[in-house]
Structures are given as structure tokens and as C-alpha cells.
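Sharing a chain and its predicted structure for anyone who wants a worked example. Both blocks are below, sequence first, C-alpha cells second.
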Amino acid sequence: MTLPYVEPGPTREQVDALDGPWVLEFGASWCPHCQAAQPLMEASLSRHSRVRLIRVEDGRGRPLGRSYQVKLWPTFIFLDQGREMTRLVRPTEPAAIELALTQINLDKL
């Protein structure tokens, strides 16, 4: 399932207009923390088929990451109807990812 990072990624207006549950991942393909988080996120997303993922290539001067005040990679922003519900920075625990996904995918309950 490994999706590529998109560059430059969607605009903030496009993200704010998203319908349903989404996860924005800010990071870079060369980032070891991002690489380590991928299997955890993919395993959790496999149990939440309604949740869609956008992997955004982040870096200096990238407006979308700055609008969310992203400081470390990976940062996962969990959205429902375009609104941030929660975020995880450098997650290492599958339970934390599962909880965040459940919060935006309430139909799963």
C-alpha cells in the first residue's frame, strides 16, 4: 500500500473541504522516523477501509505543513470532514494509531 509522498500536496482550502475521515501524513521518503512509522500506519489503516491517506512531502517553506505547524516528521493529522480531530507525532505504538483512527472513523464502532 505504500503511497508516494505528493509534492506540493493539496492546498489548505482543499484539505478543509475534504469529506469523511482522512489522515494527512507530513514527512519525507528519506526520513528514518517516517520509514519506521509506515508499517504501523499501514497495519492500522487496513482495519479502517473508509479512512483515506494523503502523504505530503514536507519541508522548509511548504505552506500546508506550516499551516498545521508541523515541526517533526512524521506528523499525522487525523481529520473528520476537513477538521483536525487529533494528531500523532512520530508514533511508535500501534494502540495510539488505532485510537486516533477510531476517533475519525466512528462508523467502525
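Comments welcome. The chain is about 30% helix and 25% strand.
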